[in-house]
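User: I would dearly like some help making sense of a protein record. I have put the entry right below:
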Amino acid sequence: MAERGGRKLPRRWVVSAATMSLAGIATAAYGATRARDDDGAGSSPGPSPAKPIPTTPSVDPVKEARARIEAFVKPYKGHLAVAVLDRQGTAAVTAGTARFETASIVKVNILAALLLRQTPPGKALSSGTRRLAEAMIESSDNEATETLWLKIDGSRGLTAANRALGLRETKPSAHWGITTTTAADQLRLLTALTSSKGPLTPQDRTFVMGLMNKVIPEQRWGVPAGRTPDARSVYVKNGWDTADADGGRWIVNSIGRIVEDRHDWLIAVLSNHHVSQEAGVRVVEKAATYVLKEMRAATADDAPAPG
């Protein structure tokens, strides 16, 4: 269906310095006692060796954050799913396994498929095709999407591209807008579009992110709500539509990336069963904001990974 316009990672087991010190003192005391007993005529066996002090596992902040995020998602009863990954570290959480219709977030997938068809890889798009790609992502133009959908050979082309992109839970449909996907698969897509280990060339990755960075202001809701004042770059693509099979209720999705001090977040928020687009946007933005707040707190003591 065409859209309606408008806004409309185990931590190590740790023995503390204090524990090590106590164990050393206990051992030394026992040795000294044995030495005195051996030198004397008495038959006293001396005290028993000290029992080792048990260690305790350290708290895993990401695991705790995952539990809280899952608790946040649970009341939505399958109508909300989130997935987040910090490219500057190893922290990742996915909550919710339901499939959702993509609506227009699939346009990023279509663009990736289009770029993967270029021969040789990395070849620039023609000026006309580039303009269509810009319209498809920046303003979510449906007519441009229809043209590019045919250009990639529709669902067959998207299926082939998704094998290269590592997507496992996305099922293309005859109509691009009712393709189904999961939050985990959208995170895989975002990872493929930003990683040097993905199938796209550096130029193509830059092109995709560049367009997601220039989405028109009235469509910059969703994932951007989770940004912090120090965010250097924000990338987004949203999707929204009504579902006939759900009594006309709204599907509202948002995928994107937020680059900030010490973090490079990839995040997908998928949802449906909303009474209005506005209600869906509020849920998606609340989820994005909450999830990123939890993940920032969970990784506050982590050093950023190099590169």
Q: What stands out?
A: DSSP finds nine helices and nine strands in the chain.
